[in-house]
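Every protein is a chain of amino acids, and every chain bends into a shape of its own. Below is the pair of lines this work produces for a single protein:
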Amino acid sequence: SCRGLQGGYRVSVWADRRTKEAAFACNCGGHQHPCKHAVGLLFAAAADPALFAPPPAPAADFEALVRAVFH
């Protein structure tokens, strides 16, 4: 999400699996595609890719504990 003059917006950028191109979504209602919020998100990811890295997988011990508790 990002904050703009009109409030907060939900913005997403991802790689389209079929076309291998960037795809964008934002609920700002702007008429440009991609909107400035999606472009900003791309710049932020280019500047610091570690911020957008997926979280590490949980340890096997944690998974075993969850299975024991919820089964």
Strands lie at 2-4, 7-9, 11-15, 22-26.
